[in-house]
C-alpha cells in the first residue's frame, strides 16, 4: 500500500496489517507480540483488535490470551472460491468419486490450525457417512486430509505444528507416536493419498489426496469416507488410486484458475 493510502486511512492500514500478520504465522499471538511486530501503540491496537473480534475476523482465547484469525475468512474464502469457479469444478469431481467408489466424497481445506469440511456429495447407499458442511477437525494426525497437509510440511514446520496441536488419542486406533507418524507421512508422499482407519471416529474409514494450485501449494483435499465395515484395508489401495487420480484431475483445473 502506498504512502498516500496509508495517510488517508491509517486505522484501516493497521487493521489489515494485523490480519496479514495472523495469517502469516503458524501459531496464535498475544497482544505484546502483535504490538511489537507491528509497532502499533497499545491503545490503538486494543481498539482495532476489539473491532476485528466483534466482527468475527479475529478470535480471542481468554485462557491463553492470544489471538487468531476467525472463521469469517472461511465464509469469504468460500465466496471467492465460488466466484472463481473452483467450487463448481470441485463439485463435479466429488460426484465422480461417488460414482466410482459408491462412498460419500468430501472436499476439505486447512484454515490455520483446523481442517474445515467445505463440501460433500453423499453416497447413494442407505448406510452412508454424513457430516455437516463447515465442520472442523483440529487434530491433523487423526484424519486423512490432515495427514495430507502434514505430509507436505517441512520438518521444522511439522515439529512446530505437532508441538502446538499434539498427538491426542481420539480413539483406540489413533496413532500417537511421532516416529511412526513420520514414517506414515513419508509413505503418503510416495503413494499420493492418506488413510485414517477409525482414528478420528469409530466406524469411519477415510481416504484423501491433495489438490495443488498452480504454484504447487495444497489448496484443498478431496477424498471419500464411509463405514469401516464396507470401506476398509482390503479396498484401500484400489480406492486410494481412484482418489489420487481424481485429485490430480482437479489439480489440473485448479492450475488454470
Structural notes for this entry:
With 257 residues, the chain is α+β, with helices and mostly antiparallel strands. The protein has 2 domains: 3-70, Orthogonal Bundle (Arc Repressor Mutant, subunit A), CATH 1.10.10; 73-254, Beta-Lactamase (2-Layer Sandwich). The protein is built from 10 helices and 9 strands. The strands form 2 sheets. Strands 6-5-4-9-8-7 form a 6-stranded antiparallel sheet, with helices on both faces. The protein has a 3-stranded antiparallel sheet with strand order 1-3-2. Helix 2 (10-24) crosses helix 4 (42-54), helix 6 (86-101) runs antiparallel to helix 10 (233-254) and helix 7 (144-151) packs across helix 9. The longest helix has 22 residues, at 233-254. The protein is globular and about 60 Å long. The chain starts with a helix and ends with a helix.
Secondary structure layout:
Layout: H1 3-8, H2 10-24, E1 29-30, H3 31-38, H4 42-54, E2 58-61, E3 66-69, H5 72-84, H6 86-101, E4 104-111, E5 114-121, E6 136-137, H7 144-151, H8 155-165, H9 178-191, E7 194-197, E8 204-212, E9 218-227, H10 233-254
Antiparallel strand pairs: 1-3, 2-3, 4-5, 4-9, 5-6, 7-8, 8-9
Helix pairs in contact: 2-4, 6-10, 7-9
What's the domain count?
A: 2
Q: Label the CATH architecture of the largest domain.
A: 2-Layer Sandwich
Number of strands: 9
Alpha-carbon distance between the two ends:
25 Å
Major sheet characteristics: 6 strands, antiparallel
Order of strands across the biggest sheet? 6-5-4-9-8-7
Radius of gyration: 20 Å
Question: Which structural class do you get from the secondary structure elements?
Answer: alpha+beta
Principal-axes shape call: globular
If you average the pLDDT, what whole number results?
87
Supply the CATH superfamily name of the largest domain.
GAF domain
Q: What's the order of the H and E elements?
A: HHEHHEEHHEEEHHHEEEH
Q: What's the tally of helices? A: 10
- Determine the fraction of residues in helical runs and give it as a percent range: 40-55%
CATH topology-level name of the largest domain:
Beta-Lactamase
Q: Regarding CATH, which class of the largest domain?
A: Alpha Beta
Hey, roughly how much beta strand do the residues contain?
Answer: 15-25%
* Residue runs with pLDDT of under 50 for 5 or more positions: 1-6
Amino acid at each position: 500500500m502506498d504512502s498516500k493510502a496509508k495517510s488517508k486511512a491509517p486505522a484501516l492500514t493497521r487493521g489489515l496489517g494485523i490480519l496479514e500478520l495472523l495469517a502469516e504465522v503458524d501459531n496464535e499471538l498475544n497482544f505484546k507480540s502483535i504490538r511489537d511486530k507491528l509497532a502499533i501503540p497499545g491503545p490503538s491496537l486494543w481498539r482495532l483488535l476489539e473491532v476485528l473480534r466483534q466482527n468475527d475476523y479475529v478470535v480471542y482465547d481468554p485462557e491463553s490470551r492470544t489471538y487468531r484469525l476467525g472463521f469469517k475468512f472461511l465464509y469469504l474464502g468460500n465466496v471467492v472460491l465460488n466466484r472463481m469457479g473452483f467450487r463448481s469444478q470441485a463439485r463435479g469431481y466429488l460426484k465422480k468419486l461417488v460414482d466410482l467408489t459408491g462412498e460419500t466424497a468430501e472436499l476439505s481445506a486447512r484454515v490455520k490450525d483446523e481442517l474445515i469440511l467445505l463440501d460433500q456429495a453423499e453416497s447413494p447407499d442407505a448406510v452412508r457417512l454424513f457430516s455437516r458442511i463447515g465442520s472442523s477437525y483440529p487434530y491433523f494426525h487423526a484424519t486423512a486430509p490432515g495427514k495430507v497437509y502434514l505430509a507436505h510440511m517441512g520438518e521444522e514446520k511439522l515439529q512446530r505444528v505437532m508441538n502446538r496441536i499434539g498427538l491426542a488419542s481420539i480413539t483406540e486406533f489413533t496413532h500417537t507416536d511421532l516416529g511412526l507418524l513420520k514414517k506414515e507421512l513419508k509413505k503418503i508422499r510416495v503413494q499420493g493419498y492418506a488413510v485414517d482407519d477409525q482414528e478420528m471416529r469409530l466406524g469411519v474409514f477415510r481416504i484423501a489426496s491433495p489438490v495443488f494450485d498452480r504454484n504447487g501449494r495444497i489448496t484443498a483435499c478431496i477424498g471419500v469416507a464411509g463405514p469401516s465395515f464396507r470401506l476398509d484395508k482390503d479396498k484401500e489401495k484400489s480406492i486410494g488410486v481412484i482418489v489420487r487420480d481424481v485429485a490430480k484431475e482437479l489439480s489440473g483445473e485448479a492450475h488454470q484458475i
